[in-house]
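Record format v2
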Amino acid sequence: MNDKFRGGFRVKLARFAMAAAVAALPAVAQTQLTGAGATFPAPIYQRWFSEYASKGSVQINYQPIGSGGGIKGVNEGTVDFGASDMPLDAKALQSFKEKHGFDLLMFPTVLGAAVPSYNLPGVSTELKFTPEVLAGIYLGKIKMWNDPQIAAANKGVNLPADKIVVVHRSEGSGTTFCWTDYLSKISPEWLSKVGRNASVDWPTGLGAKGNDGVAGLLKQQKGAFGYVELIYAISNHLPYGMVQNKAGQFVKADLASVAAAAASVKDFPANFVVSITDAPGNGAYPISTYTWLLIPSKIEDAKKRDALKGFLNWAITAGQNDVESLDYARLPKSVVSAEQKQTAKIM
Amino acid sequence: MDRLRGGDEVVYLITFTCAVTILVVVGLIVFELWANSQPTVKTFGWHFLTSSTWNPNGDKFGALPFVYGTCVTSALALLIAIPLGVASAVFLSEMAPPKISNILTFLIELLAAVPSVIYGLLGIFVLVPLIRDYLVPVLVKVFGFLPIFQGEFYGVSLLSAGLVLSIMVVPFIISVSREVLLAVPVEQREAALALGATKWESTWQIVLPNASTGIIGSVFLALARALGETMAVTMVIGNTPKITASLLSPGYSIAAVIANEFAEASGSLYISSLIFLGLVLFGLTIIINGAARILILTMQEKHG
Amino acid sequence: MDLRVSPSRKITNVVMLSLSGVCTVLVIGVLFFVLGYLFVHGFRSLNLNFFTHLPKASGETGGGMANAIVGSAKVLLLATCIGVPIGFFAGVYLAEYSGKAMAFTIRYVVDLLNGVPSIVIGIVAYALVVRPMKHFSALAGGVALGIMMIPIAVRTTEEFLRAVPNSMREGAMALGATRAKTIFSVVVPAAISGLISGMMLNLARVAGETAPLLFTALGNMFWSRGWLQPIATLPVMIYNYAIAPEEDLHQQAWAAGFVLLALVLAINVTARLIISRGPASLRR
């Protein structure tokens, strides 16, 4: 009885030790980086990372947990880089520097748009939304689809007498920042009551996780209204409306209108932080935004550093050829050359 | 203590060390939770538990919406699971032929092993549509005058979470209650029947009271599980930190808000508020478990 | 009590007993609908891609969960290596060595640990492993799940060791065996079927845990090498895909749910069979 017990145990122990040894082998030749953050650019990032991995030995594992998660991850050093559609303000950058002793650099990667998407089976025309309507819906003041304010901009459209099911993000989101940034600019009431941030005290609405969560809820729920990044509306066949811009035109989000919004910024600040919502200019889509990669200026591990720099340089040049197929707009050329200079700052 | 010889000392040391390790680990857990909650405790004090604002933007945090949601969904779950569960346990122990009873119980106990995320999966794609299309219209028609069934229903809600939780905890109640009922000596039943009681009267007046301690224990077990459930709840509750009287509106629970917001909480007040919520939840489970123990002890003394 | 059975009592009897039967049918019906739906739908969603491919970028179909399946296995292996030894030896201590005061304390603390909600264990593992190490990792996930395995390991070990009759211990010691030898050569083997089945049930319980992995193991689009990289696991993938809008991802979530459930149930059934075939003295 004793021997059987011991022998079986020893064999099991040996097998286990071998398995553990194999599983514990350090990464051979492959450099794996971990990044986390925004869902807004996740489709293009995932395409980029998988393409870049097939080119060489750099695997970049990106987890779309929301801009808030990306910012936290890079602050606590638990990820190699973060991604956020909400740029960090001076205070946040300062506290990063105090905590780590070096700067956090922000690199814009693509341009995208937050679109007002809805689920109204009986309505086949594209709806037009004025800034007042958007603020009114999210403040909870406009509750029904056939509200006179919505009807005024959509003459001839048969709007149902249904309640608007407002959808927003449940977690800290850069897309939320873009949306609330826009609402803050066009509605003084919104600015004083709610403000702009990745996570706000929503006056009304249901929360969903991630751009994909909002898209999912929009698909399932009749009468729903929410904001998602453009590609999520397109790939899920969700209708999305036009928004009236500063010049008074009703503009639909697409490559041209987003690029027009970006072009309205003449002087690009050195730290690449800029808001392009409610952009002036002909044909500009008013709820556009850059999205940034958050990268520490000091990376200890040489392999990781070179891998990240290599990827960055690729992403802002050759990688830009992929973005339009996913309905993101390319970076303006002037921004790209400024970024290449900043890439050199990563030590 | 016996005389320790040879290998004895080594083995004793190993086992003792492991036991102490557990003490250390638990101490560490409690310490980490308490220490990391301090910013919130210092800023809000006990007001945190009664405040219903949750605003990460303005750095204002209050636990009430989550405590409310946790309690409401768990209470709803128990309200449904206890009668159904105990009735089923009675049937399985008193009425069903032993073979059938054993097979059914085996299968029901397997259901207790189904992971939470799978209930969440089923919740989103199967249960919520069923509730929305069949249950709620009926509830609103019949009970619509009650404030708990008023307002818009979007699928994700306190009601859906409560119903999913009830399905998750009913196997525990059935399994434990059935065992306790079976443990009541057959003489008790026979004595009642000999005195002319019907089977139901014997069950209701003799057997169930005898087994009540165990059944209540199973209820506490179920409650403790329901309070801590994370994934199934967060997938169907709607994730909205508001307190409403209606079960049809979306809500939030402590476990769900931690799961959703911890990964991105920056700022010491935000993080410490979430951790303090975790501590509150832990505290709730300790209280429930403690109450269960005390109840069992007092009832044991009563019945001798 | 009225010795004649009045009609009203008879009716009450029939009605109440039937009601209890109805409740049982309702409960069984719902429970089996739930399981049955998962099995059928999940099975239909299985395909070769699921087992062999890595997750694909959003918008592309044909991805799979090969890395999540292996990832779950790795994390569970680590959890078992952490939780089972600590729990087992502590259980041995409680059953064979400890005095009353120490035993009470340890049992109380173990119960306390059992009551910690799984999401809270996730937070603690994040604070103790992820943040200091500055990595999300399989190690952190394993530690979180390992801690969750401890209470049941302790309880099972203590229960089954205590169930071994003292006569066996006394017999061994009378023959000159040391305490330690008695325990490991006589008591443990006598309880072995209960111990193994207990460990299996323990494993099945943590195999489905998602919450503690959310901020410890995080996730990975690629294969995770070693123990210090973020790692994909089945339960977390199910959660992520279930709340995504794409139908293709929903299908994968069902398939993963099927695989996870099949595994958990298989372990459960095996564990119960082991224990029902074990030595008569330990049959529960």
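The longest helix of chain C spans residues 7-45.
Chain C has eleven helices and no strands.
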